[in-house]
Amino acid sequence: MKTLLSISTGIMLAAVSPAQSPFDGIWTFDTPEGGAGWLSIDTAATPPKVDMLWETGGVEPVKEVKRGTDTLAFQYPWDHWYMTASGMRRDNLGTLFLLLKTRDDGSVLAFLQRGKKDEPRTPTQPLAIKRAAPLPPAPDVGALTFGEAIELFNGQTLDGWRLTNPKDVSGWSVKDGILTNDPKLAPKLDGGPTPPQFGNIRTDRVFEDFRLTLDVRLPPRGNSGIYLRGRYEVQVTDSFGQQPSKGNIGSLYSRIAPLANASKPAGEWQTFDITLADRHVTVILNGQKVIDNQPVEGCTGGALDADDTKPGPIYFQGDHTAVEYRNIKLYPRAK
Question: Is the entire prediction scored with pTM above 0.85?
């Protein structure tokens, strides 16, 4: 692996205890494109262990980690999956090359290059990583209190909702009191060299801690997601009869597998009751608790940002397949 050059400027970060490697811990960042990223580093492992999330997909282990005297270097494949009017599309955007470098005061600088096969790498640029906010202790869920219900969807219009990216194509509408996403609504738009990406939809309002209840209905092989604070995806996918996993319905995508598969068959309405409090999540699917007050270590793929300290919207994934939502109510936490 080539050494990254031009390490003359960058982002300085807070120092850590001398007893701890400056690289170790959890880091968050915004990508140059405005997406969310996350890193977990353990240099005590042999070889050093790095898990990473870059914008989309799941948290994945990084291969080919190289430790130097004051550097840590690794690379990561940069893929992007999304739904177009012609179906799912995968773009391989090349490889990300990252270099972390310590300074004498124990702070860490991060640098990024990109590369595609048979093409030269891009110039080095600084990447503004920062240490993740400490995870609060688990709350006593039974002692939490919540305010009056907020009706997030009025059953008649899309008032209070908008695309997460206004450049995407919207497949969202209201049908018979149901919030409906159908990517097949606009096949005529799929005529250019790059098919249009169908959009995710979010609330205008933002929230901190809350209880969220709703109903969802999927077609066969359907796939969507419920994003809490616009940052943490509770997976919504046709998983009936499958083994519980970090990618099946009721999971916190790529992070927390459900305790059981409580899914109903595709085509049936399913109910979610989700509590997010102090960065711990509880998920009840169809009356069965499938995640029990588990810590949320960081953002998931598709997050609007990686800052765990901020409130954020509720958003539903619409860039995969058709999906329907109804009876969407949020109860803000009373503190």
Answer: yes
